[in-house]
Hints:
mainly alpha; 5 helices; 130 residues
Amino acid sequence: xxxxxxxxxxxxxxxxxxxxxxxxxxxxxxxxxxxxxxxxxxxxxxxxxxxxxxxxxxxxxxxxxxxxxxxxxxxxxxxxxxxxxxxxxxxxxxxxxxxxxxxxxxxxxxxxxxxxxxxxxxxxxxxxxx
Length: 130
């Protein structure tokens, strides 16, 4: 039987996998990611990509393995707020493009919510771990 803590762990791993995989793809397409960030108008796009990779891969792996979950989830949540506001300007678009960006924006809002939930759970007090 799956315990609540195991369900929490599985959910945390699934949530973190989004960031780890996304970060790996940014490494593999580094030049293209820098060009994309440049197009978004981000200052110092190369540095922004490096920070993004560190948060996505490093933070994602920490979240997956259960190390520093509360602060890591909060850092990734704050990062996701910045990424969402920087990249998904649905309010500047019309038609299908606006709808697509609104969908990405709302997906990220949901992910931020999940990260906040993860950050609020006290892993050490979980009865299943004792």
